[in-house]
């Protein structure tokens, strides 16, 4: 690579900073357009169509996830950095929403929604809404990419708000791991260690997932290292592994194109 990896990271940080500064007004404008669009169609019929597509895509996804020994395709580490850095930002938004829903806003939310309704919204309605939104016909241009990423950030924050409210009256054994650490490791390690990884898929998986788990261990020694913490960190690692496998096999493609 001819450019300095750190320059790319700084450029990405500045890009996201600028997007957050002017993106809210654009987000609200496009969100209104999406609401108008979805009101014209039959949600139930669309759900059936997408359900059939999901069944067909499931086997293809499992094949890609299980492939740990084939050589890597030409890996664009900048695209990988962009994708997983934004995943980390969304997870931070989710954590921020959980703090609001679990600590600051429970008394207010109790007057609006019950815990059961919040669980239904968080784990059924909201995921279906995100899936439907990602499959809307949308041209792949910079403005649409900006809108798509920021609306996903809004969905993640809302998910965190509902989840925090659901568990606001529960006694947790220990503090959970910071989920954003795993995508941060997956985004940064290949970018700075591309010469070491080369086309070796095993090295990519070992360094990124292993590096993310080590980060969790380091933070856990500060927060609270416990068995539930380790199990959650392992779960985040497995999710990161599956996402990484799908990403490197679809890099350069629109991941939500029909």
The class by helix and strand makeup works out as mainly alpha
What number is the mean pLDDT? 81
Profile the largest sheet.
none
Secondary structure tally, helices: 10
Helix content, binned percent: over 70%
Output the radius of gyration.
19 Å
Number of E-type strands: 0
N-to-C span: 33 Å
Q: How are helices and strands ordered from N to C? A: HHHHHHHHHH
**Principal-axis shape:** globular
Strand % is under 5%
In the predicted model, the low-confidence regions spanning at least 5 consecutive residues are 254-258
Description:
With 258 residues, the protein is mainly alpha-helical. The chain contains ten helices and no strands. Helix 2 crosses helix 10, helix 5 runs antiparallel to helix 6 and helix 9 packs antiparallel against helix 10. The radius of gyration is 19 Å and the shape is globular. InterPro entries: Nematodes_ZYG-11_interact (IPR008574). Keywords: Membrane, Transmembrane, Transmembrane helix.
Briefly summarize what is shown.
The chain has 258 residues and is mainly alpha-helical. The protein has 10 helices and no strands.
